[in-house]
Amino acid sequence: MKNLIEVRNLNIAYGGKSNWTNVVQDVSFDIARGEAFGLVGESGCGKSTVAYRLLGYGTVNSLVQTGEVLFDGIDLLKLDTKALTKLRGSRIALVPQNPTTSLSPGMRVGSQIREMIATHKALPQGMSMQSRIVELFALVGLPDVGHRYPHELSGGQQQRVAIAMAVACNPDLLVLDEPTTGLDVTTQRQIIQLLGDLRTRIGMAMLYVTHDLALLAQIADRVSVMYAGQLVEVAPCDQLLKSPAHPYSRGLIASIPTVDGTNSQARGLRGVLRRDQMSTGCKFEPRCDFATTACRTTPQMLEPVAGTRSVACMKWRETAAQQAPAAKPRLDATADAKPERLLSVADLELSYRKPGFFDKLLGRTSPSVVRDIDLELRTGEVIALVGESGSGKSTIARAVSGRLPPRAGLISLDGGLLAPKLKNRSVEQLRQIQYIFQNPDASLNPRRRIRAILARPLDHFGIEADEKALETVLENVGLHAGYLDRFPEQLSGGERQRIAIARALLVNPKLLICDEILSALDVSVQARIVELLRSLKEKHAVAMLFISHDLAVVQQLADRVAVLFRGELMQLADTSTLLNAPLHPYTEMLLEAAPGLSKDHYVSLPPAMPASKAMPGIGCPLAGRCPRQVGSICAETRPPVQNTGSGFVRCHIPAGQLMIRQTLDAIAPTASIYTAETAPAGAP
Fold first, then answer.
1. Backbone angles phi, psi at 98, to 5 degrees
2. pLDDT digit string (tens) for 508-530?
3. In angstroms, rounded to a whole number, what is the distance separating the alpha carbons of residues 616 and 621?
4. Residue 683 pLDDT more than 50?
């Protein structure tokens, strides 16, 4: 198959004037027409720098020192701005990591797609513009949402709009820069399935940049692994995941948490990428468990080793037969303790809309987005809130933190009622509850250096801390003292998130609210942050409300899991119980959607019920989508709460029958236990 893209000996440096630092060194790879090619590596390795050069993009402080980027035989590095503009969007398109910043907030999404098609004169002959826009929405699994603004769409819908714009001109190459970061597992899976379908129907090639190898397993044909600006391994995706050759690839895969715990005994990556500590030989030598003296002084270059696999390690055959040191067993220091209750949430009901004058006059109420939430969090306990986008996870966190006053219900901390509004809470209560946001770009002051950002909460709460304390908290999150004098814009997304975590830890809180704080981090950094959070939990009894879509991370950290869907708690249980016996059908759907390291892992989800038919507070919110719906009772009657020992499940099907059904599913997935004798009362 003829290559569409050929990257040859690409060297890129950052800096200015005579002070240049090489960040990409001798990178070479090719992508065939219709092929999906993955580029993975830790934050700061240079993968996005390479990817954006495929569109002719480069920052003002970057310089291509040597190399070629051949697209259909044309060197993109030699084209002028006019020629590049003609190619971008029409033949090479980009799906960025954050659709919120890539979509214009002041334009309806239909107008933005219209602009793309009109700019490149890509309207198919005989088709109207409106028909083409509707067709593109349908292509990415959306109804006609052209009249909406970006803020009126969920994160998953925004990403689908970004994909629709990217494929509007039927490009030959689609560059995807972390397109599913921050999305819940079911939306992630839908996006991956969508991309696979588009690739088949349109025949476009893909360069998929990510730190998530589990997602690449679902879509990529080949994968290249990048470390410190160099490619260290290129191999077919299934070969790389089953038998990684380079020690870095092995460590990267071992760092990936899995719901089934298959990697729990594997040794992940040590330390973090530090360019100032690299040797003159192999760049990975400081972190390699198999390094020798020769590795320190002998540069390693990518060499063909077998078939289509290439590896940059002179000892890969020897290390492949060796085992890295096993991971240390996890100790739970609070196993025998009976911690006290720290946080209590009772009958919580939340809404984003306040009733207007006529609403009050007519006795109308605005719809609730969260209903009947009861939670208790003990000292040193971690409760994970999981569910799809829009399920109410962050909304609950905002209410606990005082950023969204409840419509009804009470929130208590340490036995004392918390004021509904943030401004009415005491300074001590504000210190005790610290919120770490998902998006550090919006929570870090771009005009302040990191030192000032970390010092501000200390000054606000009157806490004395010296330079050593700032350096220590940076080391705890995988950074070093050199970051103190930098601005947020000089950091990668993962590094900015670590600064946000460090800032929250500095004031010694009792409760941490972690809102998707690991979604933008590399797996190696994720593992380090999880260890840090676990240490805070076990040594300092810090409690956490941990919002995540990654059930594998939840398994590593959480004591209990609360499953939310459309503002209601579907199930609450101990983590091990819930993951091993997910009674509620929606919990099962979440676990099935969790990405694994094999392409045959995914199964199809039932289609979502149209929002227009959803009746909040009437019937089960999962009705119309539940694979085990037993009749009209599910849509018309609110399901009861059933105690299950370690928690509860909200479902019309008796808990005992749910357990039996799970056992039968494990034996014969098509079995059904529902008969006239065993169906829930009221079922047809």
1. -115, 100
2. 999 999 998 887 677 777 877 88
3. 7
4. no
Strand partners, 227: 230
Q: Both tokens of residue 100? A: 């919120």
- Kindly give the pairing relationship between strand 205-210 and strand 222-227: unpaired
Count of C-beta atoms within a 10 Å radius of residue 536: 20
The reported pLDDT for the residue numbered 244 is: 92
Give the whole-angstrom CA distance, residue 620 versus residue 641: 11
Q: Which domains does the chain have, with CATH numbers?
A: 246-324 (no CATH), 341-565 (3.40.50.300), 573-599+614-667 (no CATH)
545 contacts 433 by C-beta, under 8 angstroms: no
Question: Could you give the 3-state DSSP secondary structure of residue 345?
Answer: strand
Q: How many CB atoms lie within 10 A of CB 131?
A: 12
Exposed, middle or buried by CB within 10 Å (0-12, 13-18, 19+), for 585? buried
State whether residue 460 is helix, strand or coil. helix
pLDDT at 13 over 90: yes
Task: For residue 559, give the nearest of 335, 395, 330 by alpha carbon.
Answer: 335
343: phi then psi, degrees, rounded to nearest 5: -120, 135
Instruction: Compute the Cα dihedral for 626, 631, 635, 638 and give only its sign.
Output: negative
- Beta carbons within 8 Å of 103's beta carbon, 6+ residues apart: 109, 112, 150, 158, 161, 162
The string of pLDDT tens digits covering residues 425-471 is: 999 999 999 999 877 777 899 999 999 999 999 999 999 888 899 99
Q: Please, what is the angle between helix 185-202 and helix 155-166, to 10°?
A: 10
Residue 316: exposure state from Cβ atoms within 10 A (0-12, 13-18, ≥19): buried
Each residue's pLDDT tens digit, 254-287: 888 777 655 555 567 877 777 777 778 999 998 8
> pLDDT for 136-158, tens place per residue?
998 888 889 999 999 888 777 88
Single out the residue of 560, 615, 545, 578 nearest to residue 394, CA to CA: 545
Q: Give 194's pLDDT tier (boundaries 50, 70, 90).
A: confident
Task: Answer for the pair 341, 416: CB distance below 8 angstroms, yes or no.
Answer: no
For residues 281-300, b (16+ Cβ closer than 10 Å) or e, as one string?
bbbbbbbbebbeeebeeeeb
The Cα-based distances of 178 to 126, 251, 328, 617, 680 in angstroms read 36, 21, 31, 36, 44
Q: How far is 682 from 684, CA to CA, in rounded Å?
A: 6
240 φ/ψ angles, rounded to the nearest 5 degrees: -60, -45
Q: Could you report the per-residue pLDDT of 15-73, keeping only the tens digit for each?
A: 887 788 889 999 999 999 999 999 998 877 889 899 999 999 988 888 999 999 999 99
Whole-prediction pTM: 0.77
DSSP 470: H
